[in-house]
Amino acid sequence: MPVCLTSPTPFVKGKQELKISITAEAELLGLTLSDLGKQVRQAFFGEEAQRIQRGRDEIKVMVRYPSQERRLLHNLEIKRIRLHDGIEIPFSVAADVLYDRGYSFIERTDRQRTVDITAEIDEAKANANEIISDMTLNVLPRLLEAYPEVSYALEGEQRDQQEALGSLKQGYVLALLMIYALLAIPFRSYVQPLIVMAAIPFGVVGAIWGHVIMGLDLTLLSLFELVALAGVVVNDSLVMVDFINRARAQGVHLFAAIREAGLARFRPIILTSLTTFAGLAPLLFERSPQARFLIPMAVSLAFGVLFATFITLVLVPVCYMILEDIRQVFSKDGE
Fold it and tell me: What predicted TM-score, i.e. pTM, was given to this entire model?
């Protein structure tokens, strides 16, 4: 995988320690791991017996093994563990001891132990989204299968990206609803706004193909520009539908009105799209590092408008004719 992983700091080995676990025999006798750990702590760390006030100072009185005995592991091995009924058993019967090194420190989030794994991406070979996708599909499922108690979460840039995409979806739906409402009011129709908005998906297709042609990856800024693109690509459709409605209001036949709209609005629509693309061309071919993050936005807008324009010149007349045919069918059924 073309990434350079950094070593997760929680796995840096710390000092040597004794890891104590309770035996099955001790559990049968009613001893718990908490009781075992508490008695070992009382013997070596101590238990507070009382506090004595001496002037301004407060002195804790701790009961524990003498200093010399606390330094020898042998005293732990010969220690007696007391059960709930007062019977004492040898420490070797109550516990298993493992000599190992602990962690230098442990990080926790919401009471769960966490390990942060970070990586620097070699953008010449892959991007972060491709690597994350490969890990979630191939690597992490095998890890979770081998260790069911482990869970994972994407943080950092990936978390910010997911939150941004979530808000972007809501904003995109809201923008489409506002566009529909603004078109439905002047048209006084619930269907004609859909004809105008039919160019929006083709604008998205054009934006995607623009990234393919330019050899760029879709970025978050590219997706944000798709929301703005939805309000731009409807302009050509709006002009054509409005021209057809005005011609029909003057008594022109439907087919003639559509033909006149194509002839009268062809040049303005083409020039509008071409000038938009030409205005964005300097940014599209800019190679300076300062403008690199803006290029995906320009690609989405330029290629989206250009592709949707040619589709609009065919799609809008066809959809308008289909709409009128459907109206005639329903009007005949009503009669």
Answer: 0.56
